[in-house]
Amino acid sequence: MYAAIYTRNARPNAGLFQAQCADCKRLAAESGFEVVGEFHDDGHPGSGLDQLLALARGGNVSAVVVRDVNRFGRAFDAFGRVMTTLDEVGVLLYIVGEGRLTDTQRSVLGLMRVLTDCGTEQPRRGLRP
């Protein structure tokens, strides 16, 4: 089975980049995956994430490995968009220190996303409880 690795740093940092890669490669090997792609972004998720998702959409990997979910972006909507894409194409997500993201973990993260979205909505005028 094949996996791709995604890493991201807030700003260029070779040491952090290498540590993320090493952690992800270790988890991929422990999980029985052959790494066929490595993608990286500095700053906000960008072309590296786009390339990773294109690889997943193409059916070329069965798993994505990241150090933590914040690599996809700090906002839940960014994570939600990535998970929607991975779910649509049947690609599993593995997180360093956690292993495979389970259905229960996905549900909890989804609920957190909904709660976050509700907290940022503007109240409607004229509605009473």
TrEMBL record:
Task: Kindly give the Pfam families that the UniProt entry links to this protein.
Answer: Resolvase (PF00239)
Q: Could you tell me which species this protein originates from?
A: Bifidobacterium subtile
Descriptive protein name = Resolvase/invertase-type recombinase catalytic domain-containing protein
InterPro entries found in the cross-reference section: Resolv_N, Resolvase-like_N_sf
Report the superkingdom from the record.
Bacteria
GO MF terms here are: DNA binding; DNA strand exchange activity
Q: Where is the Resolvase/invertase-type recombinase catalytic domain?
A: 3-128
